[in-house]
Specification:
By secondary structure, this protein is mainly alpha-helical. The protein has 10 helices and no strands. It has 2 domains: 1-119, no CATH class; 123-242 and 252-286, no CATH class. The protein is 70% helix and 0% strand. The radius of gyration is 27 Å and the shape is elongated. 20% of the residues are buried. This is XK-related protein. Keywords: Cell membrane, Membrane, Transmembrane, Transmembrane helix. One of its GO terms (cellular component) is plasma membrane. InterPro entries: XK-rel (IPR018629), XK-related_scramblase (IPR050895).
Length: 300
């Protein structure tokens, strides 16, 4: 983004569109562009030209030139913002896919490190990846919806309760990743860190019927995601005055004028169901252990 902005500055300099600048001005330009603040520089230039065009005593021709420069800078600023938002969107998508792949790679690496365990084949890796991608997409969107409809304090409370419950469950399981003593400080710290991971997805930490454990965890995740996504529907379907102002935000959303309020709820549910279907297909068809016995046991 900053590279494009600097290139435009040099083009304007060559064709003499940009007025002459001092070395100090160029130093500040380069500094702020290095800090990835190119839109801010363009916005500042637009404001400067706008103020300059209204100075008393200017001829109509000079005022028109300043106004035109202001419009040029405003257009460049808008283009930079568009590039920035596109880059942020691409970054979010790659972060989502990277997180899904990290969970997939962890599972494949864990099985590869165990001689007695069969390795996951290529199709199994693909279905495992789509399983994690679907569940993560639903979870991240649900958390984003929750953050957009409730005030920050209540968002922290909701996520904090989930984190504490997950960390407490890990402690009761007696993990020994960092110390033979499950109650050692290092092991407890690890449990709390892993509990933060469990706010987004779950990682199997014990040998046994992992499909049963995954089913129990995803039942909780599915309920939470549905509740969080339903809040968007509720807050955009009811009159704001009927909602407690101490909990919910009262800023109207432009999304409500573009999409029906139940759209995000459908996306959350469908992406979660897609992930669960991929999980079922993985366990039935591509699990390294072969045929999976049908049955259920409470993994707590």
């Amino acid at each position: 983004m900053s590279s494009f902005s600097l290139a435009w500055y040099f083009i304007d300099y060559k064709v003499r569109v940009d007025p002459p600048r001092s070395y100090r001005a160029w130093t500040f330009r380069l500094l702020f562009h290095g800090l990835q603040l190119a839109p801010l520089v363009r916005a500042a230039d637009a404001i400067y030209y706008g103020i300059a065009s209204r100075q008393p005593g200017l001829s109509l021709r000079v005022a028109a030139q300043y106004t035109q420069l202001m419009l040029y800078e405003d257009a460049d600023c808008a283009m930079l913002r568009l590039i920035e938002l596109t880059a942020q969107f691409v970054s979010c998508v790659f972060s989502w896919l990277s997180l899904a792949w990290s969970l997939t790679y962890y599972q494949t690496a864990l099985r590869s490190s165990r001689i007695e365990k069969g390795n996951i084949q290529t199709l199994g890796i693909i279905f495992f990846f789509f399983w994690k991608a679907g569940v993560l997409a639903s979870r991240l969107l649900a958390l984003g919806i929750l953050a957009s409809v409730v005030k920050g304090f209540w968002f922290v409370v909701a996520l904090g309760v989930h984190w504490l419950l997950a960390s407490g469950w890990l402690i009761t399981r007696g993990t020994t990743f960092c110390s033979p003593n499950s109650r050692a400080l290092g092991e407890l710290t690890f449990d709390f860190v892993l509990g933060a991971v469990y706010c987004f997805d779950v990682v199997n930490i014990r040998e046994g019927r992992s499909r049963m454990w995954y089913g129990s965890c995803y039942l909780i995740f599915g309920i939470e995601n549905s509740v969080f996504a339903s809040l968007w529907w509720v807050t955009h379907s009811l009159i704001n005055a009927s909602l407690p102002k101490s909990v919910f935000k009262n800023q109207p959303s432009t999304w409500n004028t573009v999409l029906p309020p139940y759209t995000l709820l459908i996306i959350v549910i469908c992406s979660f169901c897609m992930g669960i279907v991929m999980m079922i297909v993985y366990y039935i068809t591509f699990h390294p252990s072969g045929k999976i016995e049908v049955g259920y046991e409470i993994p707590f």
